[in-house]
Amino acid sequence: MKLNACGQKLWCKVLNYPGMNYSRMVIVKNDQYLVLTNYASNDFHEGNQIRKFDTAGNELSVVQLVPGYGNSDLTHAGLGDFILTSDNGMFFTGFCYYRMPPPNENITLLQHLFVKTDSLGNEQWHRPTDTVNNHVGSIISSTEQSGSYYSVGYNYSGYPEYAPYFCKSSQTGQLTLEETLHPDTLVDWLSGIKKCGPDNLIIVGRVAPNYNVLPKIGLFKTDTAGIILKFIQNDHGAPYPKCIATAFDNKYLISGYAPYDYDSISHTDGYLIKVNQDLDYDSIYAYPFIYNSLCPVPIPTDTIACNCDLITGFGEAMGENRAAELKIFPNPARDALRIIVSGDTEIDEMADLAVYDLFGEKVMGMSFRKEARMDVSHLAAGVYMVKAARGAASLARGKLVVVK
């Protein structure tokens, strides 16, 4: 949904797919909106998509991310955060369940998940690639500083024991640093991170001296090695995930809710803290909010009706030129079809060809070289994504429409 400065709805869109669907976050890039969405189908298949909209709310493209059911080891991927990177790509974080090696291949473990893509959403690398050097838990927020990716979240050892997790990744996917941040004070998870100047980071977490005390908002200023330079704790309230934003004056806004009381959880108020780069308080906002507004009239407290337009399909991804092009004909198809990969880079070696439905489930797959023939007569009518890849490298992809 897009609102104007007075809180009035300009447009609204609803994703009309079966099962549960929800949007995670939005980033504005070059007058377009990049939206990270998750879904769970009626048969509990899960998936993640990056969607692109223009300023009028027209959907330009949708790309399937980490289609876990096409991977025998990584399943149930849930991406919750992403950032735009300095190499014109995107960096996604969240969680997944990763299959253990034999003889325990029927067991999957909750793992941190990192995914790096180009500007169109083509995967360049992901982690984990095994269960040996990873941790049980989830990554909640990330930022980029001097060409490295810094991420925060938690390790999980069984309720209610969470450990605050901080790590650094290179642009090529190597884990170069990991720390448990301030374990004596912070017994829950880290909720947000932003860069602070050229050498430091601001991190938000939920803090408490023990598990019998309700957590509060904690703010950390660290260097890029995770060494804490300053720490403050707010009197009450708890932060939201991805709760920190950089304001126009290079100060930081941290959002949460207060009071944090299990007995009155349905009667909480919004809470907002503003601090400078030295973690000195600038303002503390509590309900009712008083702030400077771009709206020339008082903004009423109101409810916005979600009488939104439905989104049932998608357009082709637009942007950079591809080295290889995936040609499918006939398209739409009923039964037999032919797929050819052509372009500046020809596929002379064997590669993998996979067909995914809109839930990210792999429905067909084969090995090929340059050209392949498929029979899709058994597939249900609908839209499918066809992807050619070699290992983790995406070579080309296209859209297939099956009709009956």
Structural write-up:
With 404 residues, the protein is mainly β. The chain contains no helices and 31 strands. Strand 5 and strand 6 form a beta hairpin. It is globular. About 2% of the residues have low confidence.
Which structural class do the helices and strands define?
Answer: mainly beta
The coarse overall form would be: globular
Task: Name the poorly predicted regions.
Answer: 314-322
Main sheet makeup = 4 strands, antiparallel
Number of helices: 0
CATH level-two architecture of the largest domain:
6 Propeller
Number of strands: 31
The proportion of strand residues reads over 45%
Structural descriptors:
2 domains, globular, 4-stranded antiparallel sheet, 404 residues, Immunoglobulin-like
Write the layout of secondary structure elements.
Blueprint: E1 2-3, E2 9-11, E3 13-15, E4 20-29, E5 32-40, E6 46-54, E7 59-65, E8 74-84, E9 90-99, E10 108-117, E11 123-127, E12 137-145, E13 148-156, E14 162-169, E15 175-180, E16 190-196, E17 200-207, E18 216-223, E19 228-233, E20 238-246, E21 252-258, E22 269-275, E23 281-286, E24 309-311, E25 324-329, E26 336-343, E27 351-356, E28 362-368, E29 371-375, E30 382-390, E31 393-402
